[in-house]
Amino acid sequence: MNQLIISAATEGEAKGNPLIPNVWEMGVVLVGFAVLMYIVVKFVVPMFEKTFAERAEAIEGGIAKAEAAQAEASAALEEYKQQLTDARAEANRIREEARAEGAQILADLKAKAAAESARITEQAHAAIESERQAAVVSLRSEVGTLATTLAGRIVGEALTDDERAARVVDRFLADLETQSAGAAK
């Protein structure tokens, strides 16, 4: 048994302290870690960086595109509002022009109607005056004939002399006009 204990102790000394790592194992692990670190740094990290940069660029580009689209939409909205305002102003202007033109047409039609009415009235007055003159001439000749015949019967002789008959008719008509003017006052 003593031997056993000694061989176990020798074996324990040969194996060493379990808390102290084996140098060869540490070297292999360090070399593996270094190779793995080299692979990660050389190949994996650049791919992550590249992917990160692409995503960041895509996000920034998307934000820029969104801002540009927002600015374009705002500009289009402002242009639409301006066009709508211009269209309303144009419609108001056209409406006012139409009202003014309608008023002008109405005034022209009223003036034409007044002129036509005045022309018709003037023609009627002229026709009445013409007919009155014709009636006066007709009445003069008839009254003259009647007056001459009446005067011939009163006097007892025929008044065949035209000059004398005309004077008698004129005197008779003058007396009638004087009597009508006195009665009208």
Automatic annotation (TrEMBL):
Report the principal subcellular site: membrane
Where along the sequence do coiled-coil regions lie? Answer: 63-101
Pfam families in alphabetical order: ATP-synt_B
**Would you say which domain of life the source belongs to?**
Bacteria
SUPFAM superfamilies to which the protein is assigned, alphabetical: F1F0 ATP synthase subunit B, membrane domain
Its placement in the membrane is given as:
Single-pass membrane protein
The compartments listed are:
Cell membrane
For this UniProt record, the keywords arranged alphabetically read as follows: ATP synthesis, Cell membrane, CF(0), Coiled coil, Hydrogen ion transport, Ion transport, Membrane, Transmembrane, Transmembrane helix, Transport
Mark the transmembrane ranges. 26-45
Quaternary structure, per UniProt, is: F-type ATPases have 2 components, F(1) - the catalytic core - and F(0) - the membrane proton channel. F(1) has five subunits: alpha(3), beta(3), gamma(1), delta(1), epsilon(1). F(0) has three main subunits: a(1), b(2) and c(10-14). The alpha and beta chains form an alternating ring which encloses part of the gamma chain. F(1) is attached to F(0) by a central stalk formed by the gamma and epsilon chains, while a peripheral stalk is formed by the delta and b chains.
What does the protein in this record do? Component of the F(0) channel, it forms part of the peripheral stalk, linking F(1) to F(0). F(1)F(0) ATP synthase produces ATP from ADP in the presence of a proton or sodium gradient. F-type ATPases consist of two structural domains, F(1) containing the extramembraneous catalytic core and F(0) containing the membrane proton channel, linked together by a central stalk and a peripheral stalk. During catalysis, ATP synthesis in the catalytic domain of F(1) is coupled via a rotary mechanism of the central stalk subunits to proton translocation.
Membership in a protein family: Belongs to the ATPase B chain family.
Which PANTHER family does the annotation name? ATP SYNTHASE SUBUNIT B (PTHR33445:SF1), ATP SYNTHASE SUBUNIT B', CHLOROPLASTIC (PTHR33445)
Q: This protein is called what?
A: ATP synthase subunit b
User: Lineage from the top down?
Assistant: Bacteria, Bacillati, Actinomycetota, Actinomycetes, Micrococcales
